[in-house]
User: What shape does this take?
Amino acid sequence: MRNVRLTRLIFTSALLLAATSFAQDAAAPEPASGLDLNTLDKTADPCVDFFQYVCGTWVATHPIPPDRPMWSTGMELVQRNQEILRGILEKASVEDAKRTPVEQKIGDFYYACMDEKTVNAKGYDPLKAELASIDALGDKHGLPAELVSLHRQGVNAWFEFASSPDPKNSTMNIGDADQGGLGLPDRDYYLKDDAKSVALRTGYVKHVGAMLQLIGEAPQQADAHAKAILAFETLLAKGSLDLTARRDPDNVYHRMTVAQLAALCPFIDWPAYFHGVSAPQIDSLNVEVPDFFRALNGAVAAASLDDLKAYLRWHVVHARAAMLAQAFVNENFAFYGKTLSGTAELQPRWKRCVQYTDRALGEALGQRYVDLTFGAEGKQRTLTMVHAIEKAMNEDLGQLSWMTPETKKAAYEKLEAVTNKIGYPDKWRDYSSVRIVRDDFAGDALRATAFEIHRDLNKIGQPVDRGEFGMTPPTVNAYYNPQENNINFPAGILQPPLYSNSADDAVNFGAIGTVIGHELTHGFDDQGRKFDAQGNLRDWWTKEDAQAFEKRAQCLIDEYAKFKPVDDVHLNGKLTLGENTADNGGIRLAFAALMDTLDGKHPGLIDGFTPEQRFFLGYGRVWCGKRTDAFERMLAQVDPHSPEKFRVNGVLENMPEFQKAFACKVGQPMVAAPACRVW
Assistant: This one.
């Protein structure tokens, strides 16, 4: 159930891409509170538009870089981390007999990526063997074996297969088969009939055809194949479950025997497939969306062999485009960057190479990053905040009028069982078996991908390693894992403006503290309630609790559905419910924890603001950001997180504590009527 395994406080769905350079004024004195006062628009009324008040000057003075679809304070932090990683990699890429094995791996991977001349000279040679294998297929019976080859390389044609904790026995890993095989971001891109969706599909067909021409197809043939590929993927989309429905973990858990899966999709010899991808013995597995595999079987039966081969060729080049010659990189960016996201320019190669190294060898690169950036003091202060917020959660549960005593008892048990992972794993991943050479970027990337796939599938039938991190140490993000009942904070997010050893407690609680509270509440929301203290799929709420929650949640659904990030596009209040609930609940927990930490002592004004005001300013500062219109439209369809402005105003208009801190009055925009509250 990979869709619920990691519930993230994501800054944007595209954080894996970096931003432009970030410069700080070294001569400017740091404010005593740790706040950046230069972001404020003091001409704005905080009770009318707090986002404008806290971020207005930042928004006005920080244009979206041409190589990004958005820009935000989170992206500034991503950029600073990228600069650090670049320094590490450039030093490690210099051939030196004194390099450690880890330095050799990350350094040579980065060097191979940066060697654009060699990459361009190879054209699409790295794909030719696989493309020839596809072209050699004489009938449909050979397709399943080819699919095995592609899945071993990370080309997720037709469907996805991986390991996952068993939702009913969270201590053990099982196989997990899920919908997939699409080139557009989500099923709805294939099914909506509004003008923008139709235009995007037209652009997609043009892009697929252009990519097929780059691997040798004649224009007319490539165009015909592109249209057939869209038709095939549309059949897969029709069998796929929509994102809102996937939020319910019960909708994506269907434990089946291999024979039962074979009855859904008999075209594939499933025992042969599992053996081919080197999975351990599988007797049963989770089939997340059974209807999808029925649809897949029908789509394969209906399509011609020629069209199916074209589909596989497309997904091979689509999966590897970034590792090929510049023509492939440019065409890939033209659609996925410009058309889909509104990004004006391709990122400089060094930024892309830093990202690829982090993805391929993240825990090798992360070791040096942690050495340079993450100290023991930061880890200890973060843990102290975590414990304070857990205490606030415990007290909050006791005060909930809508939760029954039976459910409160289970909630206390679950809260007691929550574990915290801060910074980096206790045991680093061993990449010694991955062969990395200095003149084979595509090969290096393929071998690193194959290593990760093999490592993942080998977990099937093995106990879950609850010490494993789902993100690399430099990542600017955090997550709650419902199947392990733990909250996870990579070192990358524990940096300014989210956390600073020199900032006062009010600012830190308002920034990273609300992140901690956000992640913690995920264990107790409409998804988290489906997993018990041990991480097993078991709804521990009574029917009465569920109804009471849903009544309060409907207020948030209605509130956020009114927000329009761009043009006539409204947010999907149901899709964003979990993250909106966590934002609203997490900030309440962090504020309560701050008040408890102050223990009645009032530090007074710092930089002209009370502790309460500094808390809310610290919170708002985290979410300063702006996006292209195209990116806003895309995320409104697929992202369960609200845009930055509404993560600020949508939350604070529900908080009496905020309104008291800034003397807001009934009737002003930042005072919601009625105010929504779950936690």
